[in-house]
Amino acid sequence: MRYLDLYDVLAVAARVLRCDSAEAVRRTDLEAVERVLADVRSTAGLAEATAVLLAGLVRGRPFRGANRVVAVAVVLQFTALNRTDLRLEPVEEVDELLDRVAAGDSTGVADFVRERMQRGEFEATLEQQLGFDEALESAIDEWMGWRVTMYERFTEQARKVVILAQDEARELDHSYIGTEHLLLGLINVPEGGAGKLLSTVSAPAVRELVVEIVGRGQHAPEGTIPFTPRAKSILEESFTEARRLDSENIDTEHLLLGLLKDTDGVAAQVLSRLGVEIADVRSQAERRIDRRQRSQEAVAAMVAGDAGWTSYGRRHHLIAELNAVLDENERLHEQVARLRDLLRKHDIDPEG
How far, in Å, CA of 132 to CA of 76, rounded? Predict the structure, then answer.
């Protein structure tokens, strides 16, 4: 059996994380990787060694960023080095296995790997592949596929929501990220579109109801906290919503739309108990997305018609200004509507 060394692992990490080798070193816990590789070298049998490698990297989380993706890529590199193909479908079963491993349960990993091993014609060596050949890249793309694409399309604010969701789970001592934590993440980014739409919902009120519904946990795990299958489906749905609405990026409004589609999750229960009209918020989110896209198209047209406005910074400044004007117009429209209602309640014709 042929083994990987630390430099091989770093080469794979650099390729997956799309960074140079120096950055890969900075984003990797080298000692943790060395410990896992030492365990692999002391394990007999390819399936068993692969299982040790996979479980060690997933559970140890040595890579800052897409740890699971790097872990799976390293495993594929290891099996390819030993002229074996590792089948990674159905994806749902692989995800479930990695969830269990991340939670500390490594039983049955070797059997899982053994069932999916196929002897192939991987003749290229690590030196020839420079850490990652096309067959491996194709395999990892097939497994992660849209997930990698999805995360790359997240706006900065949408990524912040996910980070804050993890912080909320840790604050509540939960060992998972659920829909309730994503809701808190959206609320805690008040400058985002979803945060504005949920401005009447306070984070303390949500936390209080979350504790009432599911309770506090005992101890949050170290490192990255895994998503529940329901929370994963929210992220998947946000990607679907972005494509449906012809959006290039996934923003906080798309995350909110995905969240609102799950009517049985804890987040939905919380919103319902706080008196939020789901249908109204959904339609408002879609209007915001449509308005933002129209403002971007308008600015793009202005830029195209004036060569002096072609800078990236100027274009985005114009978009921000136009969105701010549209936001103010929407607020004024809502205030006028409220005044009209108030006048009618006092038997005054607002059109008179």
Answer: 9
